[in-house]
Each structure stands twice: as structure tokens, then as C-alpha cells.
Amino acid sequence: MNVKSTLREYLRRRGLKVTHQREEIAEIFLDSPHHLSAEELYQQIRESHPQVGLSTVYRTLNLLVQAGLASRREFGDGIARYEPVAENKHHDHFICVRCGAIIEFANQKIEELQSEVAQQNNFTVLRHKLELYGYCEKCRRRR
Amino acid sequence: MNVKSTLREYLRRRGLKVTHQREEIAEIFLDSPHHLSAEELYQQIRESHPQVGLSTVYRTLNLLVQAGLASRREFGDGIARYEPVAENKHHDHFICVRCGAIIEFANQKIEELQSEVAQQNNFTVLRHKLELYGYCEKCRRRR
DNA sequence: CTTTATGCAAAAGGTTTGCAACAGT
DNA sequence: ACTGTTGCAAACCTTTTGCATAAAG
To answer: How far is the CA of A15 from the C1' of C25 (A)?
Structure first.
């Protein structure tokens, strides 16, 4: 709902149009588990709105990314995933190499580390991605 | 050269063949700046060996990854990059969002952080990727 | 000789785009 | 009315694959 109104504002500010499709896609995007691919979002949409096209899903996701409301990630399988940009809730990802589970975690020290490294190297850091690959709790036992 | 001999061993151990193409690709892979895409490697190869096909480059890169000699990375533009796996020299990446430069850096604290987070969440971490996105030294001035 | 690799072209798979019909402002 | 958007199909781009030929062991 917050994303929806922010998107509306974003669209109006640039003379773009607030369409049903965009609103629907934004809504489903919000209510879904994180790390949705375009195809998955498309399947969800078509349950309630069978006429929506896959291209519109892609176009709207790109729009959300441009508006800073979504971020696009690639975890190495060639399929892009999108997730809402939560204002104050940055998190990172653990990816299980055995079962493929993607688990979020947050760690305060990462922020410190980030600015420290940035200073050392004269970078201005806008954002970061940290991914840990290994075995999740279940899979480490079964290994 | 180390990669080349390790690759040779890897191939022999599984009854695969040591071909000119594989040796050439491994060699160029070594001598090149990091973060090479398959296409870039292909262009390099063809300067000295115009008969080599792009599929062979892909196949050999996959081989190198399977052998643990290369790692495949995706930085968000849909093109996979490959880099040699340096045994004891883990590093991470800074990506400039303005000029696209990819700069490596290393930070010891990352390792500590990693095991800490792993413990907290009951993961077994095999490897990690940390990417910082922002402005590099040049671009932050010109901004 | 037998088996695996190569190069080419074609296929795949995800994502983007051209265009005529359509909807928002 | 005007301008931007949609859905469809086709195009695109990177990566993979099938197959006949070539090279390695």
C-alpha cells in the first residue's frame, strides 16, 4: 500500500499513467514472499487477472526498480528476482547450495564494515549485496 | 601455468582430453584482467586462434568452474563473468554505478563477520560474495 | 581404433521491443 | 483528443545443445 502510493506519485510526477495493471502488479509484488521472479509474479497475477501480459509484468518491474521501490537480484541461475526495497530494513541473503533455499538475515556489523571499507578505498557506497553460500540447517545435517 | 597443470590433472583423472583449445583458453583466462565475460574471452582467443568457437569457450569455462579453478559471477547486467579462483586471496568487489568500473578489494573483517553470522543462523558457509555499489574515486568528484 | 572434443548452426530460456488497439488524463 | 500503455508475437542476447567431423589417447 505504501509502495502503491509511492508508485502513483512517481508516475504522476513524470506524466506517466496509473493503470490497473501497474496497481495490480505493485500490490501482488508487495504481498508476495520475497525474491519473486517475473514469471512467478506473472503466474500469480494471472490467477486474478488472466488478461495481463508477461511483458507488462517485466515493464512494471523495471519501472519499480527505476522508482527505487524494487531491487533486482541475480543469484546465479540466470533468472532475475525482484524484491521490495524496505526502507530501513536492509537484509542480506544466505543461499543453500544443496536445496536452493534463499534465507534472509540481517547483521548490524555489515553497515560498519561497509563504511570502513569505503573509507579505505575512497568509494562512496550507495548500497551493497552480501550473499553467503553454503548449507542451511536442514541440509547440513543430511549431508 | 598453475591453472593449466591443475586443469590437465583434472582432465586426466576423469578420462577427458587435454586439447589445444582447452589449454589456450586456460592460458588466456589466466593472463587476462579479472571479470572476463565469455564473449570477451572469445574475442581475445580469436586474435591468436581464429578457428576457436564460442561454444568451446563456454564449455571450457564451465569445465574450469567445475574443476574449481574459476568462479562465475553475475553483477546484474545479465552477463556472466569469470575469474580465476586464487587459493588464498579472497577478495570482494566494488562496482561503480556511474562508470561501471569493477574494483577489487580485500578486507579481513569480512571473514570474521561471515562466521559470526553463520553461527547465529546455523548455516555452514562455504563461500560468500560481497558487492558494494556506488561511486568510485573519479566519479564521486565529477558527480 | 575408440572415445571425447570441436565448430557450426540451431535451439533454449529469459527479457525486451514494435506495433496496432486500448485506456488514462 | 492526446499521450502513454497494453498484449501479442517477434526479436534479442546470452548460453546450451545436436550433430557430423576432427583430434586425443
So the answer is: 9
Greater confidence, A45 or B92? Answer: A45
- pLDDT at residue A32, rounded to an integer: 80
Q: What b/e readout covers A27-65, taking b as 16+ CB neighbours within 10 angstroms?
A: bbbeeeeeebebebbbebbeeeeeebeeebbeebbebbe
Residue B83: its H or E element: strand B80-84
Average pLDDT of span B91-117: 80
For chain B, give the mean pLDDT: 86
Contact A132 B128 (CB under 8 A): yes
User: What gap in Å lies between CA B10 and CA B12, rounded to an integer?
Assistant: 6
Give, in Å, how far the C1' of C4 lies from the CA of B8. Answer: 15
Cell 546465479 sits at which residue? A76
CA distance B66 to chain A (A): 14
Q: Which nucleotide is nearest, taking the CA of residue A52 and each C1'? A: D7
Q: What is the pTM of this model?
A: 0.72
Rounded to 5°, the CA angle B63-B4-B108 comes to 85
The most confident of A26-30, A52-56, A89-93, B137-141, by mean pLDDT: A52-56
